[in-house]
Design goal:
This protein has 155 residues and is mainly alpha-helical. The chain has one domain. It contains four helices and no strands. The longest helix has 49 residues.
Amino acid sequence: MRRVKPSRKTASIRKITELAVAAPQVVAIRTARMLAAGAHPGATDRAEFSLMGREKIAAAAESMFAMAAQMVKTQQEYARAAALQWWKLWTTPWLFGAYRPLVQTLASLPQAALIAVPTPTQRRRAVGKLVEAAVTPVHKRATGNARRLGKIKKR
């Protein structure tokens, strides 16, 4: 049987669902460790709590950077589409319009009102890519922590 690659939408939903399951697990495990450590945590607990803070800052920074990079890509795609539309408008041979009625000439040109306006489909895809970029670093950290902290240590 042939394996089907999941769509971007399916992959995003899967990541968000995994994040919704992993994050409460990590919070519960770390909260229990904090309560068990009490007022004077040991070296292992202090290292884990320090790691927790660093990971949160790193994941937030990565998420913001990924969102900014995706926004730049989206803006470049929109600018390219607008430039191509304007290029098409200004490279259309106006000379040939002299041999037919003005109404036909104007109808054959791109409509100026529609130039450089993203379609609803393009906007949905852009938002989906933005969400994917934002969730990926947080998902990676949360699921990794859930696997690492969920392992039962044998004594």
